[in-house]
């Protein structure tokens, strides 16, 4: 009985960890693509575009939480 619960908890933990890593990776992929788009802009627009892409994933998630409240 206890063994089944441990397997379940371990499986659930692995799934949650993979989901978090996947979300983080996806954020960085999108951020990288946007930075690539910035490189085709004029100088002033380029600097504004790059500044918008400087948020870390943690800051991005915190902003999402604030917007949902």
Could you write a compact summary of the structure shown?
With 69 residues, the chain is mainly α. The chain has 3 helices and no strands.
Report on this model:
With 69 residues, the chain is mainly α. It has one domain (2-68). 86% of the residues lie in helices and 0% in strands. The protein has 3 helices and no strands. It has helices at 2-38, 43-52, 57-68. It is elongated and about 65 Å long.
* Net shape: elongated
Q: Poorly predicted ranges (pLDDT <50, ≥5 residues)?
A: none
Q: What percent of the residues sit in helical stretches (DSSP H or I)?
A: over 70%
Question: How much of the residues is beta strand, in percent?
Answer: under 5%
Structure class: mainly alpha
> Can you count the helices?
3
Helix-strand sequence = HHH
Number of E-state strands: 0
Major sheet: none
Task: Count up the domains.
Answer: 1
The protein's oligomeric status is single chain
Output the radius of gyration. Answer: 18 Å
* Average pLDDT taken over every residue: 78
How far apart the termini lie comes to 40 Å
């Amino acid at each position: 009985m206890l063994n089944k619960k441990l397997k379940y908890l371990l499986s659930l933990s692995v799934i949650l960890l993979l989901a978090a890593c996947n979300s983080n990776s996806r954020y960085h992929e999108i951020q990288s693509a946007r930075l690539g788009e910035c490189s085709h802009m004029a100088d002033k627009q380029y600097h504004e575009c790059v500044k918008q892409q400087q948020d870390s994933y943690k800051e991005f998630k915190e902003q999402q939480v604030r917007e949902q409240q």
